[in-house]
Amino acid sequence: MAMHRKHMVRDFNRYITCSICCGYLIKPTTVTECLHTFCKSCIVQHFEESNECPECGIQVHETNPLEMLRLDKTLEEIIFKLVPGLRESERCIHKRTQEEHQEREFWRKNKIKTSAEGNE
After folding, report:
1. Structural domain of residue 117, as residue ranges?
2. Separation CA 54–CA 19 (nearest Å)
3. Which residue, 10, 89, 109, 118, is most buried by CB atoms nearer than 10 A?
4. Which residues does 7 contact at the CB level (< 8 Å), separation at least 6?
5. pLDDT of residue 109
6. C-alpha–C-alpha distance, residues 112 and 104, integer Å
7. What share of the chain is helix, strand, coil (3-state, %, to 5)?
8. Is 3 among the domain residues?
9. Is 5 within the bounds of a domain?
10. Contact 33, 53 (CB under 8 A)
């Protein structure tokens, strides 16, 4: 008779966490050259400074490493199923970030209009 072992989320952490930020993979993005996966924002930011994979060090693309990235929606869904509340948490963070961006844009535009009006 086969024994069924219950797994904890921590049993899968090495597969569902980003080696750059050490958090759960958010918008998991795979480097097609070596198949290492990172958060989208982490790997994009990394490629602003380097064109090497942060995990294995191979050169990803000589001039545009971003061409070698692929979003992994299947892994994203698996992570959301394994980590209850992560999807909702990400939605809240994304919404808050969007609102902050819109507010900065409003004040940037308003400041330009105010400065232009002061010159008249």
Report:
1. 85-120
2. 8
3. 89
4. none
5. 75
6. 12
7. 55, 10, 35
8. no
9. no
10. yes
